[in-house]
Design a protein that fits this description.
Three copies of one chain form a homotrimer. Chain A is built from nine helices and no strands. The first copy, chain A, is an all-alpha fold. Chain A is globular, with a radius of gyration of 18 Å. Chain A starts with a helix and ends with a helix. Chains in contact: A-B, A-C, B-C. Chains A, B, C: It is a multi-pass membrane protein.
Amino acid sequence: MTWVQLAMDLAGVFFFAMSGSLLAARRRFDIVGSLMLGTCVGLGGGILRDLVIGQGVPNAFASPVYLLPPVLATVLVYRFAASEHRYAGALTVFDAAGMALFCISGTQIALEAGLNPVAAAILGLISAVGGGVIRDVVANEDPQLFHPRGLYAIAALLGAGLTSAAESIGWMNAGTGLGIAVLVFALRMVSLRYRWEIPLAARRPRERDRAATAG
Amino acid sequence: MTWVQLAMDLAGVFFFAMSGSLLAARRRFDIVGSLMLGTCVGLGGGILRDLVIGQGVPNAFASPVYLLPPVLATVLVYRFAASEHRYAGALTVFDAAGMALFCISGTQIALEAGLNPVAAAILGLISAVGGGVIRDVVANEDPQLFHPRGLYAIAALLGAGLTSAAESIGWMNAGTGLGIAVLVFALRMVSLRYRWEIPLAARRPRERDRAATAG
Amino acid sequence: MTWVQLAMDLAGVFFFAMSGSLLAARRRFDIVGSLMLGTCVGLGGGILRDLVIGQGVPNAFASPVYLLPPVLATVLVYRFAASEHRYAGALTVFDAAGMALFCISGTQIALEAGLNPVAAAILGLISAVGGGVIRDVVANEDPQLFHPRGLYAIAALLGAGLTSAAESIGWMNAGTGLGIAVLVFALRMVSLRYRWEIPLAARRPRERDRAATAG
């Protein structure tokens, strides 16, 4: 793993840990709960990825440096998180930033482990959304992965797919990576801002028929 | 893995993916959420099984063909799922069908990986119920595995045990497999239809004593 | 694994299985659900630990003897659990006892697998709290790990850290292990009894400012 990849991975852990600690603050957990939840959200997606790849002990356990971002996030939330009504917004921004970084680093790590490009992109997606699902299940909310406002899985899958493609054709470098991350982040935030909607899981023609008849 | 096993495994993935997509439709998730949830439910039990077996990358990632059943299920639910009150019934039928197939294929895969017959049957059970637990936890409902109507874990465990026994004594073939699958499916559906009840986890003698005294 | 370690591990499985079966009784699950939930809670933390260590099939599957404690717990709860209002108290005691044993045995197993002392302590923590998180997520409650009354993660982390330190400097023996287990159990129970409180995840200065102004 290069220094750039490590820095990107640690930054992603930090962003997700912030989203976990902010949730802990919103739910009035204590500071230890904040550290535990931040750690689970920050490291969960990557551990899941490394378990699937199956090449020995996950990064997060092999290198203790991965424990620092959750500690930093807990301290920052304790020190600066002030008004409750801003938690939800900040949580969404940190979640989008973590997703934008992890869909890239997750895909790269999977490719380096020898997975085929399709599987690598799926693993990038899992890295990018795994921590958030843990956070949402703990919060007893419908996970954003399944029930998002705006684009969520699509943005992460696009980033993972572009990374996989760029690596395959040899176009991946720091600039490409930055471009993909900005694209994923922007797509997520814009889709939230303008409330883009995706069709529902079921068309439910009969209800519409009934409505048409009633109308 | 033989063609029969692969076909059975893919059919099981499809049935579980249908149950996930039907839940997504009932909860009014969007079509991407339906695909994500169907994929998690369809592939979750098998990935869990493969992680425990620990022989490299799980099947679902090694062969992209495993991604097709969830896509098909999402399309079918989008196109045909019409009236909400029938979702619950259809979900139960697809779940039972997936369970009937996975308790067999999961046990066989575990035996081929060299596990002892008891552990293989337990892994067959995990394959058969793992995806459903993910679905129910996401839905914030008590998982059927722990709080079923009718027989659930017992039916899956019976199927896994029979498979393990049949493989051990060399009686396993397509006919035996079909017989076990039909038995498990029928047991699940009949126990639901006739509301078979299993004793509660605690006898609670004092409450009964009190009731007897009061009566 | 020595006989002492195996006995300690099985006792930990039994205590966690009791907490799972007691929850099943409280939620009026049936007796099969009690067995399933007890098994998941008793074995979940250890399986998670073994998956991370990544040395072949988890203990719980390799040795069928690990299935006995959950069966025993299910029978005991069915036979003796009587009055509902005592379930919560008993559940907490069994959970604390399981945690006290697993933070030691989990750390030792991770050290034997060659992990560094910090990672081993984290894995001891995961062993000690993993089963309980599964139990609480199934119960749709905020997991104790994130939102405890009293000390929870801190007690487990202290026990895991002391075990890791004692092993590293060669002071680990049956007496040391017993001492650590008693310390962790006592810390958990005393913190509950006297309602020790840890600062919240966020200081929320503005609310306090407002309160000060209002006062």
